[in-house]
Design brief:
By secondary structure, the protein is mainly alpha-helical. The protein has one domain. The protein is 62% helix and 9% strand. It is built from five helices and two strands, in the order αββαααα. The chain has a two-stranded antiparallel ribbon.
């Protein structure tokens, strides 16, 4: 039994949802799980201690807003009608690339797989 053509998700839609999953996974890993901030404290006696924090611990709720930006950018094309997905995927890839460059010293580099998935989705126009 085959799935009717109208109800089967397109390759482009599947790739867009893969991009969304990558964006969410990257946000969770980079902001809440992986330690990204190192704190070195020195006392007047010369002793020093070093500890690490996640971006969420270091920045508080502001980190959630920063983490939401690439996720929302990636999510928008997935909810658009089929005819608008390609241009939306291109725009999302460009916006996410700019965001990744601006955040390159912290978490921007980790969004490269998400950008690649958006580019693939844009290339899958009509498929």
């Amino acid at each position: 039994m085959s799935i009717p053509e109208r109800t089967r998700p397109s390759a482009q839609a599947i790739t867009l949802w893969v991009a969304v999953g990558l964006a969410v996974l990257t946000a969770i890993l980079m902001f809440a799980i992986v330690p990204s901030v190192t704190i070195v404290e020195s006392s007047s006696s010369g002793a020093s201690s070093e500890s690490t924090e996640t971006l969420l611990e270091a920045m508080g709720p502001r980190a959630l807003i920063i983490a939401a930006v690439p996720t929302v950018i990636t999510l928008v094309p997935a909810f658009l009608p089929r005819r608008a997905r390609t241009i939306a995927a291109v725009i999302a890839a460009v916006l996410l690339t700019v965001w990744a460059v601006l955040a390159a010293f912290t978490v921007g580099v980790y969004y490269i797989p998400t950008i690649a998935a958006l580019v693939v989705a844009a290339a899958l126009h009509g498929k």
